[in-house]
Description:
This protein is 56% helix and 22% strand. It is of the alpha+beta class. Strands 1, 2, 3, 4 and 5 form a five-stranded antiparallel beta sheet that branches.
Amino acid sequence: MRLGAVWAVWQRLSARERRLAAAAVGALVLVGIRYGMIAPYLSYTARLEATIERDLQRIAKMQRHQARTDQVQERVQTLEQRFSVAQQQLVPGETPTLAAGNLQAHIQTLADQSGLQIVTTQVMREDTLGSFRKTAVQMTFRGDTPALANFLSGVEYGEWLLTVSRLEVRSMGRHGVSVGRVRSQGKRPPLTITLEVEGIMQGIPASNEQ
């Protein structure tokens, strides 16, 4: 009965009212994506990066004082073992250029596996994190919500330790068609996703020149 009533109301709406209603529904969907999936994930990646930086600072501090006591030496060895394991998850590459290329190829592979279509890609300027370098790529994809979820899961739980430092999601129709018009035609508009992924380079101290 309720569905029939809703359909009857929909039939009485004008074409303009239907477009406005479809646009309102699309806006609610985007709000749900922003606060239900994107915001928690960005918070997680920020905490992960802060944890990495703290571990690196602890290792450097412990190494300066490792000769003081056997206890300090044991703690240093424990931290070094942890970092050795984590280092295997850093972005490989003997130079910043190679590391950026490897990161770009890795993200493209994850996107292909998730069903996202690559629109643009750009290697960002490298940055430093303590005594290490960070490499980053910015990419724009087109796809649907399940593909985006699979992609973010691949970044989070993949073999490399990566963080998403920026993530923007927009809903647009093909060839500039508005969301309301696409929805009124019974089609689901694709999402346009722009994100920036960062990773720490393996064995490239910040003091080294390219």
